[in-house]
Amino acid sequence: MTQLPDFSHVLEGEVPFGFDELFYSRTDTRGVILAGNEVFRRVSGFSWSELLGAPHKIVRHPDTPRGLFRIIWDALGNGHPMGAYVKNRARDGGFYWVFAVMLPVPGGFLSVRIKPSSPLFEKMRGSCGAIAAEEKAQRVDPEESAARMRTMAQSEGFSSYTSFMAYALGLELAARDAKLGRPADPRTERLIDMNRALERVTEEQMKLLRSFEALQSIPNNMRIVASRMEPSGGPVSAISENYRASSLVISERLRSFVAGRDNLCDRVSRQAARALFLIGSNRVLSEMNAVFAEADPVPGIDWGEERLLLRRLEDSTHVDASKAMGRAVANAEELSRASAEIRRLMLGLDTIRVLGRVECGRMRDASGGLSSTIDQLDVFHTDIKSRLESIMRLSEDIATAMNRFLREEQGRSVAR
Q1: Which UniProt keywords apply (predicted)?
Q2: For residue 83, which of 172, 14, 156, 158 has the smallest C-alpha distance?
């Protein structure tokens, strides 16, 4: 039985629609509307003659940041899917919020939109409004506004806005299932769990880098201490120089997978986010395709063509998700190996640290700060090894979960 829409929490000026309803629209590469469904037409309040052939920005609300559209068009223009919370404007001045799943298609772009209701939506509604207000009050450039939105995603623990929106899509699908009284979807639950694990990897990555950067100052402190304690070339000086040389080697290895453009951690996150977003998109596209079987005729829209396009996109997102998941698994396994290698290199630093502790004990009557410097090494070494072990464990868990998911998806493909 179809559940009746719940309009009990509709805000003043908000256009109501049900959780069971899906918006659909397709545009050309310039954003001109080529097709849409009745939900889109009804909620927007425009007639078909006003919508078809009009730019999609006809429903753009001024409270949606221009920076968000910069992020969206950058992604779609480069052939990547994207998701976003969007506040739209109806013809009569009312508004409605959607979570939009947007994908490139031959000759343009396609969007399927659902009604958002997760706790994250409440947070994002306020954040988007604040950024839009800043744009107006401070005349913020869209590129700068987009940078602020990406920073917001990073503050939530995600390496990119795409990763953040993949997580959001999982939450919104789960919240929608609950609103509609549906049983929890195992694929959606796994999507959320894997995204949370990726969030923890990103968090550990940043903490690891900060700890190692702080560690770089300690060999200099040791040399300063040595200059006060012993002649040039003494044992403490040699220890500090050996430590500096060894730590530089580790630093280069570390930066190759936690820092800089296209680092290994980011590659894991980017491919996994792409896979997880495509998996969520596939579910929405499948439902949208089923709804189209009951669509009423609309002059200027060929439903057979739209259904065929959706079916092809449904199939391609399934294939592309599996490919991205496979790349994410390979990157996660490489990340685990790289973390293990740096963990082994840290054992060499531990040996030098122990020599420093021994020398500190031998010179205990005139240590001159050497003891406190070694104490700092103890703290940083413990923290760094803990972070590396956490990244190793999480990346192994992610690779295992993704491999299991891939096998299940392959089984689903055979059964289709």
Answers
A1: Receptor
A2: 172
Q: CATH number for the domain including 253? A: 1.20.1170
Residue 31 covered by a domain? yes
Residue 50 lies in a domain: yes
Both tokens of residue 39?
């939900």
Four-CA torsion 129, 39, 285, 151, nearest 10 degrees: 0
| Structure tokens given for 312 | 């092809």
Name 324's Cβ contacts closer than 8 Å, sequence gap at least 6: 271, 272, 274, 275, 278
Element (H, E) at 313: helix 303-362
88 and 127 inside one domain: yes
Query: What is the model's pTM?
Result: 0.81
The pLDDT tens digits for 348-394 are: 888 888 887 787 777 654 555 777 777 878 888 888 888 888 888 88
Q: Which residue from 92, 249, 237, 99 is spatially nearest to 168, judged by alpha carbons?
A: 99
pLDDT, one tens digit per residue, over 290-343 is 887 777 788 888 988 898 999 999 999 988 988 888 888 888 888 888 888 888
The CA-atom distances, in angstroms, between 356 and each of 270, 320, 347 are: 42, 53, 14
Q: How far apart are CA 188 and CA 358, in angstroms?
A: 55
Quick one: three-class SS letters along 319-368?
Answer: HHHHHHHHHHHHHHHHHHHHHHHHHHHHHHHHHHHHHHHHHHHHCHHHCC
Q: Which residues pair with 97 in a beta bridge?
A: 87
How many domains are there within the chain? 2
